[in-house]
Design brief:
The complex is a heterodimer of chains A (284) and B (265). Chain A is of the alpha/beta class and 284 residues long. Chain A is built from 11 helices and 10 strands. In chain B, helix 2 (21-35) runs parallel beside helix 11 (243-264), helix 3 (41-58) packs antiparallel against helix 11 (243-264) and helix 5 packs antiparallel against helix 6 (103-129). The chains are: A alpha/beta (284), B mainly alpha (265).
């Protein structure tokens, strides 16, 4: 589903001396079936932005179109289920949402809330536990007996079990080991290639370079840039304003550029970097 | 979650903010006590004027105090209506079975209403202008004499300040977990009573799990920094009693005297 933000403003605690602008006149177009990364410093409004997509927050001003569903300040809390079924959301540290006595029941919780039959929900649980890279034997265990990384996978399985068309990820790999992080990110990339729309909030610029098609840069509740990772990481103004940092490959390239090498555009992934180095070493 | 005004601190600066929290704490309770001395229009009017003056001195918008009334609305309505219809009278304006409406009843219910407003306003004033940690410090300081009878004052104060510190943390955690479960299709406040109660299980269990883990982390952090209570711990926040606190206390005494005078007049 295409998601369009039109002049969205969100004030926390409106009409109150403690009022603070979470979002300030943000217009963004998140394209269907693309992998969009949202980056920005802590407190820049990334989480506030994505919470509008499944109406956990409502805008103070402006509208959001999710497919053909409109969300604005007047949207009421009834009938949000179809929207929330279509927009899955993996929160930061999603393991804190686990509560059932077995992993299987916890994964089935989402689908059953959305009116899926018990049998279908069970099938979904079996499919999803394998999808997130855990053995089916975990289904009968208590989620609280698992390790942190396994709990994370179970929680992600619980969100994917409703087969959402759009998946929002709020730092899904924070605190995971490097292998686990790569597995999880590859999983989401695969889901995208099957036709889902992925929205990722992250502080990891390498993930942005390696996985994202589009990048939205947030700063102080405003959208300050958008484009492909290549465009954003080569935007000198963003770098000098200290709004974002570069992926490792680009940092490496910057150092190489101090001697011998010359890059028109900073390569942002390892494969880009190595191709470019090879090309220049071969003397072209 | 953020709608509750009673019990919430509002950052600001004014005379009321600068008063010693110990004094403010005691005076608030003292004031709630003397509200019950009032017994006629003049005395209630006098107290109401005093409270409004205190609100004015705090430089906080009156709207905050009115919003503080909101969660108590049903309680106030219930009490007022009860007084209105169940006050026995020899000269009822209207009666039906055990229900009687009389002039006395109306007057008493009006007094009860003002009493509620006074008490809620003054306690809202205390919490809006005093941080929870100041309140717990002042309770510690007030309880100090109890050390003589081996009452664990410092432990109680520590428990109190940790409990207070956990309130915003748990509110954040609850909001987060509710959002996560909403995203998984839970509708809070929809359906029958049983369904509504059941919908809180997915919040309560994660909340318990995370509070235990936060508490455990806190205990480890405190121990690794060598926390040990007892004699000789110095304080980071030092409370100081100054002239304006003495003046406030004297004003309170004056109000008591005036009240007693109006009362018997």
């Amino acid at each position: 589903m295409e998601i369009i933000f039109k002049h969205v403003t969100h004030a926390y605690e409106a009409n109150n001396p403690l009022a603070a602008l979470g979002l300030d006149d943000v217009s963004v177009d998140i394209k269907d079936k693309k992998f969009t990364a949202i980056i920005g410093k802590t407190g820049s409004g990334k989480s506030t932005l994505v919470r509008h997509i499944n109406a956990l927050l409502k805008p103070t001003d402006g509208t959001i179109m999710v497919g053909d569903r409109e969300i604005n300040a007047e949207t009421n809390n009834k009938n949000l289920k179809p929207l929330r079924k279509n927009v899955g959301m993996v929160f930061q540290f999603p393991e804190s949402q686990l509560f059932e006595d077995t992993v299987e029941k916890d994964i089935m919780f989402g689908p059953m809330n959305f009116g899926v039959s018990e049998e279908d929900a069970k099938t979904a649980a079996h499919d999803m536990i394998k999808l997130v890279g855990l053995d089916e034997k975990y289904l009968s265990k208590s989620p609280f007996d698992l390790s942190g990384g396994q709990m994370r996978r179970v929680a992600i399985a619980g969100v994917l079990a409703t087969h959402p068309e759009t998946i929002i990820l709020d730092e899904p790999t924070a605190g995971l080991d490097p292998v686990g992080r790569k597995e999880i990110m590859d999983l989401f990339k695969n889901l995208q290639s099957e036709g889902r729309t992925i929205i990722l909030i992250t502080h990891n610029m390498d993930d942005v370079a390696n996985y994202a098609d589009e990048v939205v840069v947030m700063h102080d509740g405003k959208k300050i840039a958008e484009g492909t990772p290549m465009e954003v990481f080569n935007n000198q103004k963003l770098l000098t304003d200290d709004v974002l940092t570069l992926p490792q490959s680009a940092v490496f390239a910057q150092k190489l550029a101090q001697k011998y090498f010359k890059f028109d555009q900073l390569p942002i992934t390892i494969s880009d970097l190595s191709t470019e180095i090879k090309r220049q070493l071969n003397g072209d | 979650m953020n709608k509750l005004i009673l019990g919430r601190y509002l950052p600001g600066d004014s005379l009321i903010y600068r008063l010693d929290p110990r004094g403010k704490f005691l005076i608030t309770f003292y004031f709630i006590g003397i509200v019950f001395l009032a017994n006629n229009v003049v005395s209630y009017g006098f107290l109401l004027l005093f409270v409004l003056f205190a609100v004015y001195l705090s430089k906080i918008n009156l709207g905050f105090f009115l919003r503080g009334l909101r969660p108590m609305f049903w309680l106030i309505l219930f009490t007022v209506v009860l007084q209105m219809f169940f006050t026995p009278s020899k000269d009822p304006l209207w009666s039906f079975g055990i229900l009687t409406l009389s002039k006395e009843g109306l007057v008493i219910s009006a007094y009860i209403f003002i009493r509620f407003v006074l008490i809620i306003f003054i306690s809202t004033l205390l919490t809006l202008t005093t941080t929870p940690i100041e309140i717990s410090d002042s309770i510690e300081s007030i309880l100090k004499p109890l050390k003589a009878i081996k009452f664990p004052v410092t432990q109680v104060a520590l428990m109190l300040s940790i409990a207070l510190r956990f309130v915003p943390l748990l509110i954040d955690e609850t909001t987060k977990i509710m959002d996560a479960q909403r995203a998984r299709g839970v509708d809070f406040g929809e359906g029958g009573l049983i369904k509504r109660i059941k919908s809180f299980v997915p919040i309560l269990i994660p909340l318990f799990v995370s509070s235990f883990s936060i508490a455990y982390d806190l205990a480890i952090a405190m121990e690794s920094r060598g926390y040990k209570d007892g004699e000789g711990r110095s304080k980071y926040r030092v409370l100081s009693w100054s002239m304006r606190d003495t003046v406030t206390a004297i004003v309170m005494l004056l109000i008591t005297v005036i009240l007693l005078f109006i009362r018997s007049y």
